[in-house]
Design a protein that fits this description.
The chain is of the alpha/beta class. It folds into 3 domains: 72 residues, Arc Repressor Mutant, subunit A, CATH 1.10.10; 62 residues, no CATH class; 241 residues, Ribonuclease H-like superfamily/Ribonuclease H (Nucleotidyltransferase, domain 5, 2-Layer Sandwich), CATH 3.30.420. 45% of the residues lie in helices and 10% in strands. A 6-stranded mixed beta sheet has the order 4-3-2-1-5-6, with helices on both faces. Helix 11 packs parallel to helix 12 and helix 15 crosses helix 16. The radius of gyration is 32 Å and the shape is elongated. 30% of the residues are buried. The mean pLDDT is 89.
Length: 416
């Protein structure tokens, strides 16, 4: 059964207490009844334990106790050693990005039992998989395992995130920081994220018994607005930069946006080279860097960041640009590690609130700045920013922040 609750308090005496009581009877010659009364053990139980043990076993030194106390453990299909090997395999499979679903685990458990030739319930053979009760009990016996929702990881990311690329990045980062003689306040990270007019609704409280529970959204398919954010290793941030899907940019697009925000437009709404040039001016204006006060800007390898005009401008203003290795930003980029996730969550909640406050209206791209303003202060906090720089190893500088398990995905690709 999945949930068993003990109905009595019998057999609660510890093994050490019972052994001490048995020695009192067998070695010191005391009566069973008096010892049972002194130790709080039922008379008949102590008499049974005394009949099972000889004086030679009590006197002879040995590691294992000479008797078993309490009820016998329920029969398991696998031994503890076999289950530990099974659990280690599941952990290793998840570490290399090939984790097994609950149904696959149950099928694998059946095949494992057949290979080991152990006894298992007949229902396993009928379904060719372990039962749901066994799986639930297995997770309880191994609390280090749980059912998780994995993040989609492309083959390119699994291949490129390896020790060689990571070491090259940290070597370059160390050289730049030593050459410029800059501190954490001069180390910045910039990246873009897309905000759509159709949010992913939060969970709601609803009545039981209904399969479908709805929540209002603006439309079935939304329009995307790009938001560029820059943060420093001391927890500071630059006001966001918006890119709207319009041919020409107008200042009223930024109505309700965070103070100091700027923006631009293009037909797609994605960041392009011309937009990145304007963001470079926005960044320098807010950071106030110069050749006398240099800073470091960490970027990914997006095509828009390879603008010669923008790179020349940043160089003239004392900004050194360092790129992450290709397809490694999910591990090395502070914004991806701890800022954009909370930002998307708070944006979804802000969109829900906006629709409640504007019943019957459809959210447009001109409402996005207001929504971002409501979520920005809650997500782009010094705590989240500092956490992102710390777990990525950028600040404090820690080239050994990633363990062997973080690189297992690339080994699978290289060996295949």
């Amino acid at each position: 059964m999945r949930t068993y609750k003990r109905t009595s308090n019998r057999c609660q005496t510890s093994q050490d207490v019972v052994l001490t009581a048995v020695k009192k009877v067998k070695l010191e010659g005391k009566s069973i009844r008096s010892v049972a009364k002194d130790f709080g053990i039922p008379f008949r139980s102590l008499a049974r334990y005394c009949s099972k043990v000889t004086e030679e076993k009590l006197i002879a030194p040995q590691d294992t106790p000479p008797l078993t106390i309490g009820y016998k453990k329920l029969r398991q299909v696998f031994t503890n050693e076999q289950e530990n090997e099974f659990a280690d395999y599941l952990k290793k499979a998840a570490d290399i990005y090939y984790g097994l679903s609950p149904k696959e685990v149950r099928k694998f458990a059946f095949e494992y039992a057949v290979r080991l030739k152990v006894r298992f319930p007949s229902s396993w053979a009928d379904c060719e998989m372990a039962g749901a009760d066994w799986f639930s009990a297995f997770l309880k016996r191994h609390p280090t395992l749980s059912i998780r929702t994995p993040e989609a990881t492309s083959l390119s990311r699994a291949t490129c995130f390896n020790r060689t690329n990571v070491k090259a990045f940290f070597d370059n980062l160390k050289d730049v920081m030593n050459r410029l003689k800059i501190g954490p306040g001069d180390v910045w990270n910039m990246d873009e994220t897309g905000i759509t007019t159709v949010q992913r609704p939060d969970r709601v409280v609803a009545r039981k018994g209904f399969k479908q529970v709805g929540k209002i959204t603006s439309a079935e398919r939304g329009t995307l607005v790009t938001v560029a954010v820059a943060v420093s290793a001391t927890g500071n941030h630059v006001p966001p930069y918006f890119v709207f899907p319009r041919v020409n940019f107008r200042e009223y697009f930024l109505k309700g946006a965070p103070i100091g925000s700027s923006g631009d437009a293009n037909a797609t709404g994605w960041m392009k080279e011309a937009n990145f040039v304007k963001f470079a001016h926005h960044f320098v204006t807010n950071v106030k860097c110069s050749k006398e006060n240099p800073c470091l800007l960490l970027l990914d390898n997006h095509d828009s960041h390879l603008s010669i005009e923008a790179l020349d401008y940043l160089k003239d203003k004392g900004v050194t640009v360092l790129s992450f290795p290709p397809h490694c930003s999910h591990k090395l980029q502070p914004l991806d590690r701890s800022v954009f996730g909370p930002l998307k969550k708070f944006v979804n909640s802000a969109c829900d609130s906006w629709l409640v406050n504007h019943p019957g209206k459809t959210m447009t791209i001109y409402d996005i700045p207001e929504v971002v303003n409501a979520a920005f202060s809650s997500a782009v906090t010094p705590r989240n920013i500092l956490s992102g720089f710390r777990v990525s190893g950028v600040s404090p500088f820690n080239p050994d922040v990633f363990k062997d398990t973080d690189y297992l995905g690339c080994y699978v690709v290289l060996w295949s």
